[in-house]
Amino acid sequence: MKTERRAFIKTIGMGSFLLTTAPHLASAPIEDLCFHDDDLLSLSSKLLKEWCNTLLQYQIKDKTQSGLFGGILCPSCARIHGRCPEAIYPLMFLAETTKDKRYLNSAIALYDWMETNVSHPNGSWRNDVNISNWDGTTVFMAIAIAESLISFGHLLSNQIKQQWLSRLKKAADFIYTNFHIKYSNINYPISATYALALFGDLFNEERYKTHAKQLAYEVLEYKTPNDNLLFGERGKGNDMVSPKGCYPIDLGYNIEESLPMLTLYGLKTQDSVILDAVAKFLQAHMEFMLPDGAWDNSWGTRNFKWTYWGSRTTDGCQTAYALMADKDARFYKVALQNTKLLKTCTSEGLLQGGPHYNSHEVLPCIHHTFCHAKALTTILSKGLPETLKKESTKLPREIPYGVKVFRDINTWLVSNQNWKGTITGYDKEYSFKNGHPTGGSLTMLWHKHLGPVLASSMNVYQLFEASNMQSDFDPNSISLTTRFQTRDGMYMNISDLKSNIKYNIYEGNIIFTTQSKLVNANQESPEDRAIYCQITYIFSNDSVSILATHDSEKTDYVDFILPIISPSREKYNLVSQTSATVQKAKGILEIKSDKPLKLLPMFPSKNRIFNHVPGMEAIPFAITNNTIEIKIRFI
């Protein structure tokens, strides 16, 4: 189905409006752009060119196709995303470094498409054509145009350059007039700090610079009191703390958009106060990177856009961590590990929305590619710090520290010799209910040889940002979060905002005990009575045990759902009624239960379920009993 869809999209262009599908469009081979003395820059240069060559394959080149010419067609969404002109900056960079005019022509055509389809008289650019009138994303388009003009404007004719400058001035005034610290989610005013700083120089207007500095210093007030995390990803809610004292925080947006933009502002203005604050923010957020370069946003407010490597419509963590790598040697490793993961998740020239898109034959949204191309372009264009710290070092979660508590998100991280885990009771919701999991759920379980074993998704997959999310066509798709739920799926313990979590360490084992109720999105119990649950997680170096109980009196009313992360290429075996194994690349994962394991319905041809958050397949086991004991181990 995936291959047929892509082939169809390319076929309709032959003789009509899609550009050439030649696999190698630039005259210079990818290797010629490599920075051979640095692993991060070398990998980034190869990956950037691979992505941009593929973007060219999906760009519409037929000038007779009014309204379509210049746009980049998405193979998954079968439309042109309104933000695709942000690829102008990466394309202009390649036009400069390869001297291949096809990149320049592509950038100019993208700009023309943007002006034809998403430009608005008030100076903004809309997020989408006829789908979304949201104009806050003007700031990202404006930064891409400004960076292109400043660094590569000499490639443009005087007429085109003046056209871009004139239009950018209107966008600059729109941002100056409308963006304030409470404009929207915190990523918007933070991005405006860098945009306005660029405009100040480009148009020689101090008012832009003054407003940029005001916003940057207001942002510093959005630091949580205990954990030094950036907050403000609140949706249409407010910044008030939750009943548990939690703040509105999304890891993905913070590390891939907000902190990179604040980094760029600090570096441009050489503001030591801002740069010191950014370094501390980056250290705090770095705690959530897994050893393989993945970002554990299993708990964030905008978790609905979480993918294993980051967030779907943001730029990437490379800008912040690579450009600040002189502050902390671990920052360079963060950027490198994540870029390696981006490469692993790239297939047929596009960044997939997660590690298992290919195995489940799900087409990737092209949004991921043109956004993340900007982060790689930024570090390649601006270069790494001269005093880069690159000595051998370990990421925080590579160290077996036991337990770290994050009070401002009611979340605990576990790290022993072999296992990494995340347990959360985070009760700050976004603008809708039943989004990120809570209830004392184990939202991430990762093994140093096996990778992710358990990984959460949204409680209920909802297209909250329909134009920025992919539809779920798997009829058997369910949440990937381990949980108790009623048979009809209406009531789940992972929806309980009032859960209680405690832990202790006994004889070297880390033991978490969580108490919750089965509730629906409105925090209501089933009609007959409340059903209470207790789930205990025991982390030893050899295994992770789950002891789960509930007090429902009804037989076959409550199931314990255990989705084991596994791409369909892996073989699994039901050894007995109570045990199963999964053959992983580096060994065997064993699951043993004291009660019978049953399999829930799966996508037939793949024998797996799939969820776009965080882009993974799983084997959905279910156990029906009031008392359950499960042991998961590597053999």
Q: Which stretches are poorly predicted, pLDDT < 50 over at least 5 residues?
A: 8-31
CATH topology type of the largest domain: Glycosyltransferase
| Form type | globular
CATH architecture group name of the largest domain = Alpha/alpha barrel
What is the straight-line distance between the termini?
Answer: 36 Å
How many extended strands? 22
- Total tally of structural domains: 2
Helical fraction equals 25-40%
Mean pLDDT: 94
Please outline the major beta sheet: 8 strands, antiparallel
The first-level CATH class of the largest domain is given as Mainly Alpha
Describe the structure.
By secondary structure, the protein is an alpha+beta fold. It has two domains: 2-396, Glycosyltransferase (Alpha/alpha barrel), CATH 1.50.10.10; 400-634, Beta-galactosidase, Chain A, domain 5 (Distorted Sandwich). It is 31% helix and 19% strand. The chain is built from 13 helices and 22 strands. The protein has helices spanning 2-11, 39-57, 88-98, 101-117, 138-152, 158-178, 187-202, 206-219, 251-269, 272-286, 318-323, 329-344, 367-382, and strands at 306-307, 310-311, 346-347, 350-351, 402-406, 411-415, 419-424, 441-447, 451-455, 483-486, 500-506, 509-517, 532-539, 543-550, 558-565, 572-576, 579-584, 587-593, 598-599, 609-611, 616-623, 627-634. The strands form five sheets. Strands 11-12-13-14-22-18-17-16 form an eight-stranded antiparallel beta sheet, with no helix packed on it. Strands 5-6-7-8-9 form a five-stranded antiparallel beta sheet, with no helix packed on it. The chain is globular and about 75 Å long. The chain starts with a helix and ends with a strand. Mean pLDDT is 94; it is low at 8-31.
